[in-house]
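Working notes for the structural subgroup meeting. M.R. asked for a predicted model of this chain before we commit to crystallization trials. I am recording the input and output together here so anyone reviewing the notebook later can reproduce the run.

Input as submitted:
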Amino acid sequence: MSAPVVHHVFFRGAGLTVGREADAALLQPWPAAPRLARTRAPSALLFGDDRGLLIAAAILWLALTLWKAALAASIGVVWEEAHFVVAGLHPALAYPDIPAGWPLFARACIALFGWSPLAIRLPGLAVAQALPFAIYFLALPMTGRRNAIWAATLSMLVPPLAASGAIFYSEATMQLLLALMLGAMVRVLRGGRRAWWILVGAAAGLGLFVHYRLAVAGIGVLGFALATRGGRRLWREPGFWLAGAMAAAGLAPSVAYSLTTHAPALSYHLVGQQSWRFSLLGPVIFFAIQAAACTPVFFIGMAAGGIAAWRAGRAGDSASALLLWVGAVLFGVYALLTPFDQKVAPQWPIEAYVPLIVFLPQTLIRYADAGTGRRRWLRAGLIASGPIVAICAFVAATLWTEVGWAHPDRVPLAVRAQITSDYEPFAQFEPAIARAQAAARARFGAEPLLATSGHVEAVKLEFPGRPGRAVFALGDPRETIAHFDVFRAAIGLDRASLLARHAGAPVVILLPEPTYLYDDPDDTAFRATLCHSFSDIAPVETVEAPPGRLVMRTFIARVGGGRAGAPAPCPFLPALYIAWPKRTAILARAHALTVSGLTASTAGAASVDILLDGRIVGPARLGEGAADTTPAALAYDPDFPKLRFAFDMPAAAMTPGPHRLAIRLTTRDGAVVDGQSRLVYGAR
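Returned structure, recorded in token form:
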């Protein structure tokens, strides 16, 4: 069956060229660039011949590289980056949440370039910036040189493909390896040398050694090999089996690790991090996020390109069918999950855009070619909105990271409310740790160990903290979701190892203050366990990190010998607790504001006063709230379980701007205790 004849418009810097070409031209293994005539078209204002387009692409690539390098030098280390480095320092077949490839790459970077964030980020940036070259490699046998250059250029403008590199994530590596794998397969399908199968297998194996998600692309390849005529011929290819064996070799270490550790990664990815509940809103949100992330023009263009690839595949173009199968499966698997799994991450389907972007230049060309005169200019303007939106997104991301994170006081309250603690560097807690270590040495006469709540906090203290620092993770209840407790136990830096091997040793403990400590039974139980695990516990100080959401407390103690028996006061279980409003909450004056929480004391509470900016606003009502939610660990208070309080804040008191909210407990024996203040905001 012959392919339908359609219009093609080829971008030649001096202009758009209109020509009639058969879709069958796509079936040629190495299509030659057509001779193009000049026209008075919108692109006449842009580039000249291929050399002009290459110069424009090079300028864009350089600008993007410099932009990412600047961000890499300024953004605080996120915990995943620290996790990769720390995991790489303890080589294993795999880890509870990921294969071994990316942590071992982090280890190599640190070994070569030193103990610093840029030591991992710059090599990661180099990988990310190789993606346009891999896209060109993939597109060249599919579309010819001109459109391959355009595909590479567009890959630097489609935000999901262009954004990677500033932070040491594995996303760009998977995209790069997928492009190389598919580029090699396309060459085999187009009659190239069978030696390309080696690259197919190497890219697939390395990709599976980096992250399990590349297996979804493998499902797409198998679907192509089973469902299409051209694909079924691959089963008779020795190279196909060789590539499959090399891919399996990349996955083998993770399989061996899973067989010996009860498959923590499998349970984490399929159960632990998922939220299996049905919602028809899930697909709507998923498609809206993907369209916004790609920009609507590019998203629709890649979808239309997929339709063109389907038609070409039906006409006998196996290479187009392959790319469509891989792209559709990579996107479709997560789209099909969205009605049921409400935690499908926006970055999971990004790899789908690698094969689909190959068809984007031709799709945009055909769309522009369909118009004449003024309509062509309008269509060209619509196409240009994609890069414009992408550039605006990059600028917004820069402002968000450079201003929003570093100077949250300079951004509007509504924006400030979205700032989380993910990027807050733990280096700011080093002076507090040093003071706590000095206090421990003075009290216990020995150099203290260092411990914190869980793996996430531990790795942020280990990297880029002092090289060689060992931090014990005490078993935060969230550890079990990603099975980080398995990893900390394997390297001997968990609570059990601390108690078994270092009984009686002094220790400095750095604990984050949860937002809803006494309203989360798991958090309360964790703190109670710590009270049983340590003795001679003494609080040192409380440190609040800008913009006020992250609060850390330092303690000194001895390992083991914790209290047992009846409940008693314990420094890990604060006696004064505000449940609402949470830290950095934005409080509207038009709505009633109830300050709530609880207090505990061996003498019992005579009164609880609410302080705003250091001044008493009024007394709280005692014995409020559900008594059955009061933690049993506070049963030492004579008023237990009626320990909760409530206070209706006057609307006039919450003026626009920042405020410090605190509570003051007066006990029945006359003692006065002030709680730690928290930052809240009155809405304007």
